[in-house]
Specification:
Blueprint lengths: L1 H11 L4 H37 L3 E4 L1 H26 L6 H32 L3 E2 L9 E4 L7
Antiparallel strand pairs: 1-3, 2-3
Helix pairs in contact: 2-3, 3-4
Amino acid sequence: MILLFLTSINSLRTGGIMENKKKIIHITVAAATFVLVSLGFFLTGENLVSLVNMDEKITFSSSVIIMLFFSPLIWYCMVSIILSNITNRCPKYHDSFIKYFGSIAIISLFLSFPTSLYVNYKLRSENYLICQKISLTSPNTYVKDMKLCD
């Protein structure tokens, strides 16, 4: 990380003051977005692990699937923004990565709803109960015993 920062400082010296400020802002925003998406990915990963293990309490919705498959696209975009601001050139095979990661993300949009319906059906057939939702957009929480609902 320190090496990346030092490299960015050396490459930023070639531009004007305003251009350097824009590059620093782009790098900072991309790094912050990368960290937030990583946090979201690992939180949704916990939900998927509980589903695979068939734990006593499972939280799942279509947004979990969408987050899982959109993460590679967002990660690549943020890394390419950082690298292009440091090196002043586009990463090699940029178009191919965007095409494939974008295709995966779009397919996940269409497959997330049927997957959510299937998971709902499967968990109900396994005698899981659904806790009352806090809001309309919150994911479903499936439990074996209603005492586990928060």
